Amino acid sequence: MHYFCSGKKFVLQVVFFQMKKSLIALAFGTLGLGIAEFTMMGILPYVAADLNISIPVAGHFISAYALGVCAGAPMLILARKRPLKHILLALMALMLVGNLGAAVAPDYWSLLAARFISGLPHGAYFGVASIVAGKLADEGRSSEAVSIMIAGMTVANLFGVPLGTSLSHMLSWRVTFLLVGCWGLIVLYYIWRWVPVVEGLKDTGFKGQFRFLKTPAPWLILGATALGNGGVFCWYSYITPLLTNVSGFSSESVTALMVLAGFGMVVGNLVSGRLSDKYTPGKVGMVVQGMICIVLLMLFFLSPNPWCSAILMALCTAGLFAVSSPEQVLIIRVAPGGEMLGGACVQMAFNLGNAIGAYVGGLALSGGYRYPALAGVPFALTGFILFAIFYKKFQSKY
């Protein structure tokens, strides 16, 4: 055990010292966005009870955030001539406003609007931050740099989401969104202080931003992203009632289980970043997406067993973010002239999948809390097929 802990500590130290301060600042942004997006899954019952609505109706707050992501990403076209650093600062300011609005929302409709506003900067931030991370990366380590930027979101699930769940249990779910808003101020400072002014992208004009969409490669990636993540979110959107009502865990243990889910995300993200540089992003994404299909199917059958449910949950959340870095890297490579829009589009696809997944998972709840996982299998399988087509036909070109 001593050697295991020492080895683990050494790995964490190596990862930390390899991070440039600029990448840490970018990761701070994804940390705030990650808490804002994923914390709703853990606090869904508290929000539903406080606003006097059902859990499936409360699932609309997940979809509202996701739809905000889809609406916000195209805003980058209007800002394409602005310095990348200034765009990042503006997006973080919008995140701050949206989450403070959620913290004080008095009813269903106002919270729905606040969640939509909170989602607006999400995809755009990832699009810009991915390009900045790639420009700051050492040669041959662009995938790892992007995975470090995305790591903030996985840390959000490791610590931020369990903290939000715990605060909702002890105090109020509103405190979680208040903290995210305050974190936005910190992110603004560190982006201003640590992120350098990097060379902007060549302006290809309004139409040039969309030219990459004329080829099939980006559509395969976007389709795999939307459907693959939609499959996971059929199940993950309703993870808390599944763990308590099917797997038999107490409500007090949900916080610890969310830590386990977050740990899976951290490991999956960092490992896939390294593997994508060593092999190819397409190969890593295809293999991981295939694994997700199998895990979702196993969750349907084995979730009544608490140990199996917990282990499979960690594997599925690891897969969720192990496929994220390859998708983010690939979309930028296949979007010449529209890299910023492409990077945002993959987050649009991710969150469109989340919205569809949360909706379909809510419909599947009529059969019981196990059925959202089964409903997610066809989505995940289709995502795997699209990834396999991309790998076979296009990976060698990128």
From TrEMBL:
As for membrane topology, the entry says: Multi-pass membrane protein
Ranges of residues in domain Major facilitator superfamily (MFS) profile: 22-395
Instruction: Report TM segments.
Output: 23-47, 53-79, 86-106, 112-133, 145-165, 171-192, 219-239, 254-272, 284-303, 371-391
Q: Which UniProt keywords apply?
A: Cell membrane, Membrane, Transmembrane, Transmembrane helix
Q: Which domain of life is it from?
A: Bacteria
- PROSITE patterns linked to this entry: MFS
Q: Where in the cell is it found?
A: Cell membrane
Where is it predominantly found? membrane
Q: Which InterPro entries match?
A: MFS, MFS_dom, MFS_Efflux_Transporters, MFS_trans_sf
Q: What is this protein called?
A: Protein AraJ
